[in-house]
Amino acid sequence: GDAHPTRPMTWRRNVLWIDCSGALVAGVLVLALSGWLAALHGLPRSVLLFTGVMNLVYGSFSLSLARRAVRPRPLLTLLASANMAWPLVCVALVVVYRATIGPTGLLHLLGEAVYVGGLGFIEWQSRDVLQTA
């Protein structure tokens, strides 16, 4: 684990890979299953297309950072900030569609809010460590 003195916060060094992998997989799945998910979640398909595309955008950006040997702090700050802002979008969607959203839609959006917001918080705290691969 991370307790070894010569390898502090090793798992945090991989958070960009976790971020990009999760976002890209989620984006592809949500886009591919958007019609089915729309009916299941009680949300318009356009909402799922929007969140799927945004996941691909986030995933591509975090992948571009993960692949770099040296990562500019402003770009890490931008990624972390965007991830920490995404929960506000998820909660806003829940509020806007509160009359139609079902339990699975609620779980999807709130789960995504917690996951993405949590990654953003970890990335924010780890900006110094993440500046080099």
Descriptors:
elongated; 133 residues; 7 helices; mainly alpha; single chain
Give your account of this protein's structure:
The chain has 133 residues and is an all-alpha fold. Helices cover 77% and strands 0% of the residues. It has helices spanning 10-13, 15-32, 34-41, 45-66, 73-96, 103-125, 127-130. α2 (15-32) runs antiparallel to α4 and α5 packs antiparallel against α6. The two termini are 18 Å apart. The relative contact order is 0.18.
List the helices and strands and how they pair.
Blueprint: H1 10-13, H2 15-32, H3 34-41, H4 45-66, H5 73-96, H6 103-125, H7 127-130
Strand content: under 5%
Task: Write down how many β-strands occur, each being a DSSP E stretch of 2 or more residues.
Answer: 0
Helix % is over 70%
Distance between the termini: 18 Å
Apparent shape: elongated
Mean pLDDT: 92
Largest sheet report: none
Helix count equals: 7
Radius of gyration: 16 Å
Q: Extract low-pLDDT stretches.
A: none
Short note summarizing the structure:
The chain has 133 residues and is mainly α. 77% of the residues lie in helices and 0% in strands.
